[in-house]
Amino acid sequence: MTTRPRPKVAFFDFTSCEGCQLTVVDLLQDHPELLDAVEIVEFREAMSEKLPLDERYTIAFVEGSCTRASDEARLKSIRERADFLIALGACADLGGVNTIRNVMPLQEVREYVYGDKADWYETYPARPIKAVVKVDAAIPGCPIDRNEFAKAVTHLLQGRLPNLPDYPLCIECKALGTVCMYQRGQACLGPVTRAGCGAICPAVGYGCEGCRGFVPSPNLASMREVMREAGVGDEEIESRLRIFLTYQMMKLEGVTS
Amino acid sequence: MSLRIMPKSALKAWIQRLQQRSFRIVGPKALHGRYVFADITDPDELAIDYPTTLSAPKQFLLPPREVLFSFNADTMDMTAHIEAEPTVLFGVHTCDMHAIQLLDTVQNNGFADQHYRARRDALYLVSIECLKPCSAQCFCKDMETYSITETYDVHLADMGDAYAVRVGSDKGEELLAGFTNIWEGADSDQQRLNEVMSQKWQNFEFRLDATLSQLPEVLGAAMHSAHWDELGDICLACGACTQVCPTCYCFDVTDEVDLTLTHGVRLRAWDSCQIEKFAVVAGNHNFRSQLGRRQRHRFMRKGKYQYEAYGKMGCVGCGRCGTTCPVAITCIKTFNHLTQESAERQAAVEVKA
Ligand code: SF4
Ligand code: SF4
Ligand code: SF4
Ligand code: SF4
Ligand code: SF4
Residues of A with CB below 8 A from B263's CB? Predict the structure, then answer.
């Protein structure tokens, strides 16, 4: 093997469940060669060391969404120190499940979660990190797909941005030979959701919930009609479109937060 | 070609025998109340009387994803991956046989695709006569694909308690070699088969308003039809229609290397003309960015372009795209709509004249 300088890689988290970082830890168990290819300089999930403040990260992976004003300064300082900043998972890339609350009055949400301590906690409508800083690429999914993460790192090592699928999930689902959820009387967001997960939800009998985000030009009017035809009520259609996709939906509808 | 007779009860024993001879057996199998082509381990799983499958059997010739070759990026050593396991494909309907014939023509054209060639050579086709239409969406009578092509190895026709068996090639003889529960048909068997066949034709109806020979012209005249944008408005660009189509063969090629950046593979995977980036070329220009244009392209391929290039229609009338499409865009409706438009244009011209 030719020796190449090892890029300095760091992981950071904002509002998230850490599932995406855990997926990376999990990947390291059976791909130790990743540690030969990169030098991990910060990773709270796995080590306590930190990179000296005057050094740069070659690649900063950021998990989680921005949910309070004070997140922004930290995120911006990571951006300044990183050659590449990559959103890791649905929370960072889309805002993810954290954005469900964006359609509700914030104070109510706060009180629901923190009760009489509500005012102790700072918060604002959740947003993907690209709403705050420039993001070079994203690894989609809730959680990310471990193989796709390895692929993305490989592409970055080759000096190019990750080339990950953004075509609809149905392409993967059909290639697998799965019987379509609509033919089993259930709804699925596959036609408007980007592929890459291997269409795992339909493969085990669940309609896709869109955790990887929309394809570049989703035909939502038609998608809603298809779900309606499948017997899904309007309210449920809207809530399905808002499990992972609230932020994207609000953007498409011209409502910004 | 002489007629042979195999009792239906012998099918299982024949399959078991082929399995013992190390053939991979694939065929129609029930799944969630539908049918798919899949590996048959237990002969009882084979649903040879299936109506139709969701996807075409092309996956055994052109897998959804395959490694073409592996390479070492440091030494530039390359190793071709041409794998083909002797496989018997059971229960192929006549429309799918026509589709395989088209794939053969396309893949053997110019530089034959060696990966396809190897799989095709190792694939044994046991087709079965369709005695009635397989779905509400099929229109094989219109596409002239409801009788068998010459390319079968063994062809079966259901005669109630027995199959009328025709052997079409040496490969077919190879499949039956040493199998004894089959015998030469008598004149009375031939007569019975003739009866079955004469009843068959009347079970099928024409479902298109245009004839096969009119279709390329109807499509040619529809180049600027407003209907494409009507389809584009409802189409989800999900690509399901092309994935399940027995004649769609478009693919994408990518290289993937491992984390050491040393060992890699070149992959080929199914692509679809319906997805947004299919026609993106250098400079990020997309010459088919509109959905309506992509629909037009698909139907032109099916009813015109393939015919002009290879003398065979790109649509064999299997109806699968119509069954699978979430927004019910179907060949029958589309072709008939365009035929109607064409007739209206014609009438307008005649009124003027
Ligand atoms: S994307 Fe999903 S798995 Fe990843 S951090 Fe967010 S909630 Fe957890
Ligand atoms: S199950 Fe979902 S992803 Fe699969 S083909 Fe149907 S709509 Fe597409
Ligand atoms: S099928 Fe849909 S919800 Fe399930 S993992 Fe894939 S993108 Fe996410
Ligand atoms: S275009 Fe549709 S009906 Fe025609 S061969 Fe393909 S899947 Fe079958
Ligand atoms: S299956 Fe239907 S919705 Fe999907 S791309 Fe084809 S025509 Fe469009």
Answer: none
pLDDT at B106 over 70: yes
Of the three residues A126, A157, A188, the one that is the final residue of a domain is: A157
Q: Please indicate, yes or no, if residue A1 is contained in any of the structural domains.
A: no
* Chain B residues close to A175, C-beta within 8 Å: 64-65, 243, 269-270
- CA atoms B106, B108, B112, B116: torsion sign: positive
Q: What ranges in chain A are assigned the alpha helix state H?
A: 19-30, 33-37, 69-81, 90-94, 106-114, 146-157, 169-176, 200-203, 220-229, 234-240, 246-252
Contacts of A66 (CB under 8 A, 6+ apart): A14, A15, A72, A75, A126, A127, A128, A129, A131, A132
Give, for B241, the enclosing helix (H) or strand (E): helix B240-244
A150 lies in the same domain as A174: no
Name the token pair of A252.
Answer: 């498409």
Assembly ipTM? 0.94
Q: Which atom of ligand 1 is nearest to the CA of A144?
A: 4
Comparing CB atoms, the residue among A36, A171, A184 nearest residue B32 is A184
Q: What share of chain B is helix, strand, coil (3-state, %, to 5)?
A: 40, 20, 40
How many Å lie between the centroid of ligand 5 and the Cα of residue A104? 35
Residue A163 in any domain: the answer is no
Tokens of B280: 């993106």
Tell me if A100 is assigned to some domain. yes
Size of interface A-B (CB pairs under 8 A): 114
Residue ranges per structural domain of chain B? 4-203, 215-352
- Cα(A7) to centroid of ligand 1, in Å? 25
Residues of B with CB under 8 A from a CB of A: 31-34, 36-38, 54-55, 59, 64-65, 74, 233-240, 243-244, 254, 256-262, 269-270, 272, 275-277, 291, 324, 326-327
Query: Which ligand does the CA of A145 lie closest to?
Result: 3
CB B212 within 8 A of CB B22: no
Does residue A209 have its Cβ closer than 6 Å to ligand 3? yes
| Residues A213, A204: Cα–Cα separation, whole Å | 20
pLDDT value of position A38? 94
User: Average of pLDDT values for B261-290?
Assistant: 92
Domain that holds residue A116: 8-157
Q: Each residue of A194-245: pLDDT tens digit?
A: 999 999 999 999 999 999 999 999 999 999 999 999 999 999 999 999 999 9
Q: Give the integer Cα–Cα distance in Å for B60 and A77.
A: 53
Are B273 and B302 in contact by the 8 Å Cβ rule? The answer is no
The answer to whether residues A138 and A67 belong to one domain is yes
Name the E strands within B238-352.
251-257, 263-270, 280-281, 285-286
Pairing mode of beta strands B285-286, A57-63? unpaired
Strand partners, B30: B35
Residue given tokens 């939502």 in the structure block: A220
Q: Is residue A24 part of a domain?
A: yes
> A46 and A142 in one domain?
yes
